[in-house]
Automatic annotation (TrEMBL):
An example Gene Ontology molecular-function term: nucleotide binding
Ranges of residues in domain Gfo/Idh/MocA-like oxidoreductase N-terminal: 5-118
Domain GFO/IDH/MocA-like oxidoreductase: from-to ranges: 127-234
Pfam families: GFO_IDH_MocA, GFO_IDH_MocA_C3
PANTHER family in the record: BILIVERDIN REDUCTASE A
Name of this chain's protein: Gfo/Idh/MocA family oxidoreductase
Organism: Actinomadura livida
Highest taxon of the lineage: Bacteria
Length: 348
């Protein structure tokens, strides 16, 4: 089978990780790299470094990975769609809802394969967690709590912690539960002297009436990436730094004590740390996108399930941008933002 020809747009820290995986990916040839910021003098792995996106397209690429700054996603993505190339666009999809909508329309209207690089979808702990939730192992889900904190990454300059980090938690929460956000309330602070927020605390509600809580910041020397899902049968704790998944069972047992019979609570039960395979999430992401390009899987998809090949659709990426904008709107106006289909209905 003839290898797919891939291009890479952006050679920052994430772009170099993409280059590493693409250069060794079965069935794919990394044909060329362009960096809109013009920083590097050479590309890694002996790949040609070209001077413009048009030069990259002239190499005859089948698809491109877009890993340049978020503010450039729309310009680059629209040009790729116009040229008929598939695209894997790093998260967040765009820096505004309007830009994300234009990108989604551009690829969907042409029937082109396109996805968003929400890499946490491919973390083994979250993959296992989603499968267990779908199988009903927790019963009714009551709450999803995420904590994502660590030192400020100096490579990020164009967006704040909400659009850079919190979009991970927004996407993974909707994905593992299969539920849309219907409301969100948030508070942000900016303490590092940058023009964007560097800490956010948000609480929200999903369509099934379960509650969510996100604590995200760039101000902590402690690096933490934790997702806790609590349901009627216990809770699952996913540590995406180590790709570990642990289950804590609700050990409630029946009682013959009449005075306590009317109390329905929980107690500590068994604890299980699941043994799960741990492939690299970025490699899994690229393998699934490669397979989607070969199969011609389109850009559309729903929040309850990605397209058949397992990529994160642009429409899902659009919804994540919509929720992240609602988080910022809530923090700005000091109220709860109501959403429907990802669109802001009002602030209360």
């Amino acid at each position: 089978m003839t290898p797919l020809r891939a291009g890479l747009v952006g050679l920052g820290a994430m772009g170099r990780n993409h280059a590493r995986v693409l250069s060794a990916l079965d069935g794919v040839e990394l044909a060329g790299v362009v960096d809109p910021a013009g920083r590097p003098e050479t590309a890694p792995y002996g790949v040609p470094l070209v001077g413009s996106l048009d030069e990259l397209l002239a190499l005859g690429i089948d698809y491109a990975v877009v890993a340049c700054p978020t503010a450039l996603h729309e310009e680059v993505g629209l040009r790729l769609a116009e040229a008929g190339a598939a695209a894997l666009i790093e998260k967040p999809l765009a820096d505004s809802v309007a830009a994300a909508e234009r990108l989604t329309t551009a690829f969907e209207s042409r029937g082109l394969v396109a996805g968003v690089g929400h890499i946490e979808r491919y973390n083994p702990a979250l993959q296992s967690l989603r499968a267990r939730l779908e199988a009903g192992e927790l019963g009714e889900v009551f709450q999803v709590v995420t904590r994502r904190q660590g030192p400020f990454p100096h490579r990020i300059a164009d967006v704040g912690v909400v659009k850079d980090l919190a979009t991970h938690d927004i996407d993974l929460t909707a994905w593992v539960t299969g539920q849309e956000y219907v409301s969100i309330s948030a508070h942000t602070v900016a303490r590092s002297g940058r023009p964007h927020e560097d800490m956010v605390a948000a609480v929200g509600r999903l369509a099934d009436d379960s509650m969510v809580s996100h604590l995200v910041n760039w101000l902590s020397p402690l690096k933490e990436r934790t997702t806790v899902v609590t349901g009627e049968r216990g809770c699952c704790v996913a540590d995406t730094l180590t790709a570990d998944l642990t289950f804590y069972a609700n050990g409630e047992i029946g009682t013959q004590w009449e005075a306590l019979r009317t109390f329905v609570g929980v107690s500590q039960g068994d604890m299980i740390r699941y043994a799960i395979p741990k492939p690299e999430p970025l490699l899994t992401e690229h393998e699934r996108f490669r397979d989607a390009v070969r199969a011609g899987t389109g850009a559309a998809g729903g929040v309850s399930g990605a397209p058949a090949a397992g990529i994160v659709s642009l429409r899902e990426g659009l919804r994540t941008v919509q929720v992240s904008v609602a988080v910022l709107e809530s923090a700005k106006l000091g109220g709860t933002v109501s959403l429907q289909d990802g669109e802001v209905l009002g602030v209360g």
